[in-house]
Design a protein that fits this description.
Blueprint (H helix, E strand, L loop, with lengths): L1 H9 L4 H12 L4 E2 L2 E2 L8 H4 L12 H8 L11 H12 L18
Antiparallel strand pairs: 1-2
Helix pairs in contact: 2-5
This protein binds heme C.
Heme C binds next to helix 4.
């Protein structure tokens, strides 16, 4: 487990493999076309980029609410490893392949 984690921290972040599942599992159900909480959408690149300042995680709402545990609401915070993945992704200029759209994997019924 430890070896797997530390291996991931040194490798480059891959949006589809590393970031997409975190957002789809924890965020998109409240931030997509059906449920646009606070006007924030994280299912589409153009909208998600409004919450992102490339290279500056500390200036990015998406990162700050995740790190502080404000999001997702209700106490189910992202793990330290997940927050760290987001931080690295921002530092690598938050690449998001054109056309990659996210869909919630645990929508509230
Ligand atoms: C259960 C629904 C829900 C989930 C899941 C959720 N959010 Fe939110 N989000 C909200 C609501 C509601 C607000 C508005 C909060 C407010 O106005 O106080 C919000 C607001 C935000 C904002 C705007 C904050 C601001 O001050 O303008 C951002 C950015 C955000 N969410 C990102 C995320 C991220 C990133 C995740 C996943 C880690 C996430 N949200 C998961 C419901 C959710």
């Amino acid at each position: 487990m430890f070896i797997v984690c530390s291996g991931r921290l040194t490798a480059k972040v891959n949006f589809i493999r590393d970031v997409k599942p975190i957002l789809e599992e924890n965020c998109v159900r409240c931030h997509d076309a059906d449920s646009v909480m606070r006007g924030v959408r994280l299912d589409r690149k153009d909208r998600a980029m409004m919450q992102i300042v490339k290279k500056k995680p500390e200036d990015s709402p998406l990162y700050n609410v995740s790190k502080s545990g404000i999001m997702p609401p209700g106490g189910t915070n992202l793990t330290h490893a997940e927050v760290e993945t987001l931080r690295k992704w921002f530092a690598e200029e938050a690449p998001w392949p054109n056309g990659a759209e996210l869909a919630a994997t645990n929508r509230i019924k």
